[in-house]
Amino acid sequence: MPESTKSGFSENTIAALSYLTFAPAVLFLILPRYNKSSYVRFHAWQSILLNIVAFVVSLALSLLAEPALKHGAYFILGVVRVMWGVWFGLWIATAIIALNGHRFKILFIGPLAERTAE
Rounded CA gap, 15 and 45, in Å? Predict the structure, then answer.
């Protein structure tokens, strides 16, 4: 079981908080009180990488959506909604898993986060 930090929050809580947005994950990697834990570093890096992938995929779909919608291809809106649903589901699941003290490696992102957190 991860220890409590000096702030009174457990490593599980800090790791789960890193999934809230990009900012806490970066903050936890910078602050010495949190960045000493490989568990917190793993979840912070996975959160950062998940946000980067979500942004890049969203940007790509947005660039594809505009011309597609002009030609009546409304299926692209469904693709965008599915992508955001998957991202939101991963975001919630990883935060809950981190809170429970486990590491769930997202495909491609998790192994990279683990290597970066070492």
Answer: 10
List the one residue out of 4, 48, 50 whose CA is nearest residue 25: 48
Which among 19, 13, 12, 2 has a CA at the least distance from the CA of 93?
A: 19
**Average pLDDT of the residues of the chain:** 86
pLDDT at 8: 72
Contacts of 66 by beta carbon, 8 Å cutoff, 6+ apart: none
CB-based contact 16:99 (threshold 8 Å): yes
Which distant-in-sequence residues (6+ apart) come within 8 Å of 48 by Cβ?
22, 25, 26, 29, 113
- pTM summary value: 0.82
Return the closest-CA partner of residue 97 out of 106, 85, 108.
106
